């Protein structure tokens, strides 16, 4: 793991995310579940989380020797998918929970993937220069950020004109039958199974449905991405709308001929 220092978010103690947790509470929660995080994710999503990340990673498949920033990277699953999709790209994977991001280099080594840099970084205050990346991504992490709009602005800031911002996130599904059934699973079945496998995971998976219910839906997310300076915004529903992939392009100055991909 790299020696990038963790930036301090101003007034962090006053921030609350969609699920009502402060940045410190989020960090502590993920530190507790880090060891079982991958196993629980794959089990409780029936392996669909692997497919969702592949769909997101395909958005950069034409990228050459440029930098991609994967934020709230957790244990690095999306970062690895991005690298597989764009082998020539350099992927910087950042998370503000050291216990989570520590697994990334081990997984990259097992997968025999090079060109990935793992470090500590807060999505609200990224240690990256303006326009230094061809793309910035986050999978199931923007919902946990204490200030959604600021997080989106930071992602847009570090992306060059014509580059992409990718957000993969859970969504409360619509419909009179599937929607309630899915939320019942999230509220009752998922936390019970998680706590049986690892008792420390119970809190994280009770927090999950609460944060999904409170989080922005596709229309609101699209508007917020637009407000962050992004254009050509797409909200792609996956698995009956339980997950959405949001794609936005950083607007180019009229005199700038920077290519997109």
Fold topology:
Elements: H1 23-33, H2 37-44, H3 48-57, E1 67-71, H4 77-85, E2 90-95, H5 98-101, H6 103-110, E3 116-120, E4 133-139, H7 148-158, E5 159-170, H8 178-197, H9 202-214, H10 218-227, E6 230-238, E7 243-250
Parallel strand pairs: 1-2, 1-4, 2-3, 4-5
Antiparallel strand pairs: 5-7, 6-7
Helix pairs in contact: 3-4, 8-9
What does this structure look like?
40% of the residues lie in helices and 20% in strands. The protein contains ten helices and seven strands. It has a seven-stranded mixed β-sheet with strand order 3-2-1-4-5-7-6, with helices on both faces.
Which key phrases capture this entry?
alpha/beta; Rossmann fold; single chain; 261 residues
Give the class-level CATH name.
Alpha Beta
Percent in strands: 15-25%
Q: Please report the distance between the alpha carbons of the first and last residues.
A: 29 Å
**Which regions have little confidence, pLDDT < 50, spanning 5+ residues?**
1-13
Overall pLDDT level:
89
Number of domains: 1
CATH architectural group: 3-Layer(aba) Sandwich
Number of DSSP-assigned strands: 7
CATH topology: Rossmann fold
Strand order of the largest sheet: 3-2-1-4-5-7-6
Structural class: alpha/beta
């Amino acid at each position: 793991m790299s020696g990038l220092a963790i930036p301090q978010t101003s007034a962090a103690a006053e921030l609350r995310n969609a699920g009502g947790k402060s940045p410190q509470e989020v960090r502590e929660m993920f530190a507790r579940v880090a060891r079982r995080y991958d196993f629980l994710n794959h089990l409780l999503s029936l392996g669909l989380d692997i497919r969702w990340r592949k769909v997101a990673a395909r958005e950069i498949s034409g990228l050459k020797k440029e930098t991609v920033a994967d934020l709230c990277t957790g244990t690095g699953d999306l970062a690895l998918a991005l690298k597989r999709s764009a082998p020539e790209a350099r992927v910087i994977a950042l998370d503000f929970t050291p216990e989570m991001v520590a697994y990334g280099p081990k997984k990259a080594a097992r997968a025999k993937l090079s060109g990935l840099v793992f470090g500590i970084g807060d999505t609200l205050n990224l240690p990256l220069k303006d326009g230094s990346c061809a793309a910035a991504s986050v999978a199931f992490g923007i919902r946990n950020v204490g200030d959604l709009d600021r997080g989106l602005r930071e992602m847009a800031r570090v992306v060059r004109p014509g580059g992409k911002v990718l957000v993969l996130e859970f969504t409360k599904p619509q419909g009179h039958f599937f929607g309630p059934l899915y939320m019942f699973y999230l509220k009752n079945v998922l936390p019970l199974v998680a706590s049986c496998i690892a008792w420390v995971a119970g809190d994280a998976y009770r927090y999950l449905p609460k944060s999904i219910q409170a989080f922005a839906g596709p229309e609101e997310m699209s508007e917020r991405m637009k407000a962050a300076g992004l254009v050509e915004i797409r909200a792609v529903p996956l698995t009956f709308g339980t997950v959405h992939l949001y794609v936005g392009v950083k607007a180019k100055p009229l005199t700038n001929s920077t290519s997109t991909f």
